[in-house]
Amino acid sequence: MNDLSAPKPVEPNPQYATTADTNHPAVGVLRQVLAALYGSNPQFDAWFHTLTQHLDLLRQARPAALRALDAARIQDPQWFTHQSMIGYCAYVDRFAGDLRGVHDRIAHLESLGVRYLHLLPFSKPRAGENDGGFAIADYDAVREDLGTMADFEALASALRARQISVCFDFVLNHVADDHAWARAAQAGDAKAQSYFYTFDDRTLPDQYEKTVGQVFPETAPGNFTWNAAMGKWVWTTFYPYQWDLNYRNPMVFAEIAYTLVRLANHGVEVFRLDSAPFLWKELGTTCLNLPETHLVLQALRAVLAWAAPAVLVKSEAIVPAAQAAAYLGASRPGEPEKCQLAYHGALMAASWVACVERDTSVLRSVIRDTPKPPVHSSWVTYVRCHDDIVWSMLRPQIAQLGGSYEQRMSAVTQYLCGNHPESFARGIPFQTSGNPNAVHGTNGMAASLLGYELPDGHPQRAFALQRFTLMHALAYAFGGMPVLYMGDEFAQTNDYSEAARAATAIDGRWLHRPRWDGERAAQAARPGTTAHAACEVLRRLGRVRAATPAFAAHANPAQIIDLPDAALLVFARGPDHVCVFNFSDQERVFSLSDVGNTRGRQVTDLWTDRAAGSTHMLAPWTFAWLAYTSA
Ligand code: OTU
To answer: What pLDDT, in 10s, does the model give residues 40-51?
Structure first.
């Protein structure tokens, strides 16, 4: 059994005994952070020496074009917070067939103003079930049918030439059970076993289970899996074939750090750090967001700051706003930096609640609880992604507002799943084991959740485009980099194909992972079609945003303005910009002087490009981006 209280001994590797340039300040930071994690190990100094020697070799191997990028980014560390930054997220195969196919989609991305492309995992996955690529068999190989590392390098540089930064999904919490480390562990290699959390019997697992939650309670209950080959239990937070890495072992940290820099040298500009909150485990805790998890991220950030300084890290922490913010930058001056980017999942989830309830109180509370991102960092905002909408992120808000989380959220999720006579949504519950009152996650494409599946003539069908626009307008104006989800630009609905039906029987999230719909994409060029309307909305949102410096991620964070009308969400972005969103089926009128200073100023709605009078009317499910300028 692993000794969980002490780090494993380390083995310096004499192969890398060269002299490294270790005077860089980031190396000092790295040492400080790693000493906090592993310093009690008597071999720490030797281990750290080997680590930096090896990293230095990788640093020296960095291609010239990427070194040039490093230099440019060091000059402009705020580049990704610019109001023109818009992201797009896609599966390589579903979007474009393979890595080479992505080249043919660049013009489409440009037409949406996209400057950041998050490709879901395309590394060589486990054979068989692989959680949509999130079970990695080999970090250094590309899934065979998608191409090769050379194809990725060519794509990354073609994208860079068009000012699109590629984001690589780095699955660092776990590897697949057929990754070389897990295979060696199963063959009885004790060193390989120490890369994982293994247990001879249920004593410790049972104790951990008392405080650790469940991500897939229905399809992968529990957090431990019996492995007969090893004769041990192994920690598996997600599916049984995804083995959690043991970051208490400094060798694991070193391997992951090397992998990170190797991948960076292929042209990755941003790493999405998948499942970041789960990296460290401690008995008696939820094993989420632990201080040591943050130390691991600070160390990885320092590794990149030294070896590949152009490269950003983005935390995938689907946790409440306050906890998600802790992954950004440095919380205190002088503290080592964490990620430059973090998902604002709570904002996304709360915007769905507002849609259902026609009440923005949860959304307002999330925004109030959102700390200002530290300098040189930014939120990622979004409407939908490849995962379910995770509701637990809103627990603190519902608690603050009073009332039962289960009751309120079960009403919301029932509505989103069409179990309400007036519901416009066609989602499907995730991981609730058929219990209609259980609250976990909700699946569905944005379009299906917003009313696009309703028959023509249904009163709510007429509002689908407005709701689609409203939800995206919030993600575009809040303050962060908005990331679009492939298919949403064409208002693609749920995938009801035979193949999807089979896949959703195993994992419901395949409902909203459709293939690029060529027919819809062609329609998008024809005015009057659904796809064209959605695409045009996103293009225009992007253009207006890009022309409005107040909407940059680093500019004035959204400040809630409380109007008594619960259906209205109002926030200011600095002294001259106010965003108003009408989350209701009725038109709403408000006075401009109630939301901003109108004295001697003219007000224009940047979205409609019309001057506003002293009162402003918002049609159902519409919004205004108001700019106050001196008359
Ligand atoms: C991430 O997600 C990925 O985005 C999922 O696609 C993977 O299945 C998972 O990791 C394992 O690699 O908890 O904070 O509720 O939101 O699994 C990390 C479903 C996660 C996802 C959840 C998630």
So the answer is: 999 999 999 999
Give yes or no for residue 388 CB within 6 A of ligand 1: yes
CA of 121 to the centre of ligand 1 (A): 12
In this structure, what token pair is assigned to residue 413? 């999720």
Catalytic residue among 70, 151, 274, 337: 274
The residue to which tokens 């697949």 are assigned: 176
**Ligand 1 pocket residue status of 445, Cβ below 6 Å:** no
| 357 tagged catalytic | no
Q: Is 244 in the pocket of ligand 1 (CB under 6 A)?
A: no
Tell the residue nearest (CA) to atom 6 of ligand 1: 387
pLDDT of residue 565: 97
What's the pLDDT at 20?
Answer: 59
Place of tokens 């060529």: 518
CA-441 nearest atom, ligand 1:
15
Asked if pLDDT for residue 15 goes beyond 60, the answer is no
Residue 256 banded pLDDT, cuts 50, 70, 90: very high
Neighbours of 582 (CB within 10 A): 25
Quick one: average pLDDT of 288-296? 98
CB 278 within 8 A of CB 319: no
Token pair listed for 520: 């819809």
Q: Is 471 exposed, middle or buried (0-12, 13-18, 19+ CB in 10 A)?
A: buried
Query: Residue whose CA is closest, atom 14 of ligand 1?
Result: 275
- Do the Cβ atoms of 487 and 105 come closer than 8 Å? no
Tens-digit pLDDT profile for residues 105-115: 999 999 999 99
